Every structure is written in C-alpha cells, then in structure tokens.
Amino acid sequence: MSSIHERNEKVRQILDNLYNRAIDAGVEIDESAYKESLDKLFSTTAWGFREILLVVIIAMRLDNAFRASTGLYDCNPRAIYEGPIKEFLIEKDIPHRKSGPLNVAKATVGLDMTWAAQRRPSDVAEEVVHLVDFMEQDDINAEMKIENVGTSLLRRLISYSQSLASLSVEIEPSEDPDFLYHLCYELITKTPDAGNTPQKIAALLLKCFHTFFHTGVEVTGGDDRASVTSTTSKKPGDINEECAGRIYKVYEVTVKHFDIARIRDSYDCISIYNESHSTNINEIIVICRPEDCPPDMEASGLHGYLGRYTYQDVIYYYWDIFEWISNTLQHMVPEGRNGFYLLLNSYVNETNTSEAVKKLWQELHRN
Asked: How far apart are CA 156 and CA 162, in angstroms?
C-alpha cells in the first residue's frame, strides 16, 4: 500500500469520525471558547476560510507536530484537500470550491495576522487565525480541542448544506422565450454571483442551441467558474464553440468593464493558445452590457450588436447581453428552450451554486 493511499485512508477515517460525531445529537460540545470565531466563517460567501480550517484540523490529527501558524504547507494542503477531503464533501453534498483553501492561503508561510491582513475579508481571516491559535495551545486538552472544533465545523457545514437543499425548485417545463428571458434577466441583474450567473446562462444557451439543432458543435468552458482565468484553464476565452477538436468561435461573457485592461489580458491568452495549438483565432465575441464596452469602441449604431474594438490583430465584437439572450432564445427550437430551462434549474439546484442565486430562483417561481 502506497504512503499516499495510507494517508488518504487516514484522512477519510478522521473525516468519518468527525461527521459521525457531528450528526450524533448525544455529542454535546462546549463551544464558548470559539463559537464566535466559527460563526464568523459562515457569515461570508468566501467559503475558502472554512475549507482551510478543515484542512488544518485534518493535518493536526494526522501529525501532532503540525503547526499551521508557522508552516501551513508542511501538510501538503493541496493534495489533502483536492483528494480525500473534496471527495468526502462531494459525497456528503457539502458545498465547496475546487481549490478554495488554496485560494485563500496562497503566498503565505503560515496562518497568522500578517496573512489575515492580506485576505478579504480580513476580519474573517483573523478569526481563522484565532481558531488556529486556540487549537495549537499546548495543553492536556489539545487533542480534544481539535476534535471539538472539527465536530463543530462539520455540524455547521451539514446544517448549511441542508438549508441550501431546502431551496431546490421543482419546475414545470416551459418553451416560452419571453418567460425564460425574464428569468435570465432577473438572475443576471440581481445575483450575478461574481460573473458566474451570466457565464453559465450563456454557456447553457449555446449548448442547447447546438444540441437540439444537431449541429455537431460542442460548447466548452461552461463548467468553469468565472474566477478561473483563461490562462489557468488553457483556453482562449470563457466559452468556446468547437467541432472535431477545433475552436471556431470564442466568447467572453461579463457584467463588468471589458476595457483595454481586460482586452490586453484576453489578447495574451489568445496569443498563448494560438502559439501552443497552431491556430489563428482572431475574433472574439464579448457579451456584456453597453456600459461595459470601452469608451473608444467603434460603435455600430445598432441595439444588439454594439460595436467593435480592434487590438493588434484581434477584433472584439461587443453584443448587448440581454439582447443576445433574447435573440438566442427566439432562434432556438422549442425543445431547445425547454432543455435550457431544465439545465438552468439543475445548475441552480447544484450544491455549490450561490445561496443568493438559489433564493432568487425560488422567489421567481413562487408566482
């Protein structure tokens, strides 16, 4: 048995033990010493703070000498989280991010106040430091403190998961393009979710358009979160239309300014992709709001297609996001619109979709 397999088995045993304690109503814990700090971690949409705490708890149970305050990466947190911990969270339907703890802990030696000051929100990061300090105190109750904090954390994660599950919506199929447009408009304007909502809507629209017209075109990139950069994912844009492994059309979807700074970043990604794949992508469709276009864009004088911006050898064509959505819905076959509605509902009901999106979706279906 490999050392990695043995470590993963130990991690799973620790998680199962904490989970069983968490769901056992007979296990009573005095949280007075850390309750406020732990509650604070669930007052923010930055899930990575509670995920890094879970990694620390597991690492401390694996190795009594581990100290996250001075040597976080001594436990190889990426391997622990992206392996057995994430598998456990998926199995238990507990919301999580792909690399949540690594995103909040990157470029740090230890979880201390210097680290906390560089994180946002810093006051939540400070509570992580307080919890780490509490568990690292060298006394006869050290192991029990780690066990109790871990159990308390799991109880909150389970409770949060159950509260999200209660927001799931059962829908009746609809092919009405005006109704579906209204849902999209409300979601994008009220719960953009850091860009994830418009990107997912655009990807699902394109996917259903091609699927039900049997075009043979594959839509890729739609499963990535908006925070995943094109450079990281090694793709030329947010969403791509491909056929036989070749990208024919690239889309950027945003409700933030897509100005010269974003254009430069995009151009770098395209150049890297073209060079590594021997392609010649030189057109990008930017789906955004009119106010997100660069001020010196060459305006079209139209409503849906807003205009173009040429940067070196790449042309950016700007489309009004709401006009584009309505137009795409109108051009889809009824079965495609129905499929889009079902897929959008499935996305909203997913464990990791934002609570704000779930609540709005539920509200939109009450009337």
From this structure: 10
Q: How far apart are CA 153 and CA 246, in angstroms?
A: 46
Whole-angstrom distance, CA of residue 206 vs CA of residue 220: 10
For the full predicted model, state whether its pTM sits above 0.85: no
Contacts of 62 (CB under 8 A, 6+ apart): 7, 10, 11, 14, 75
**Residue closest to 128 by CA, chosen among 159, 149, 148, 157:** 149
Token look-up 């509650």 returns 39
- Residue 106 vs residues 73, 103, 254: alpha-carbon distances, Å: 10, 6, 26
Cβ proximity of 321 and 288 under 8 Å: yes
Strands 239-243, 218-220: parallel, antiparallel or unpaired by DSSP?
antiparallel
Residue 1 CB neighbours (<10 A): 6
Q: Say which DSSP state 85 is in.
A: I
Query: Position of tokens 């040429």?
Result: 310
Query: How far is the C-alpha of 135 from the C-alpha of 43, rounded, in Å?
Result: 21
pLDDT tens sequence for the chain (367 residues): 468 889 999 999 999 999 999 999 999 999 999 999 999 999 888 888 999 999 999 999 999 999 999 999 999 888 899 899 999 999 999 988 776 667 777 768 899 999 999 888 999 999 999 999 999 998 888 899 999 999 999 999 999 999 988 888 889 989 999 999 999 999 999 999 999 999 999 999 999 999 999 999 999 998 876 655 554 556 899 999 999 889 999 999 999 999 999 999 999 999 999 999 999 999 999 999 999 999 999 999 999 999 999 999 999 999 999 999 999 999 999 999 999 999 999 999 998 999 999 999 999 998 6
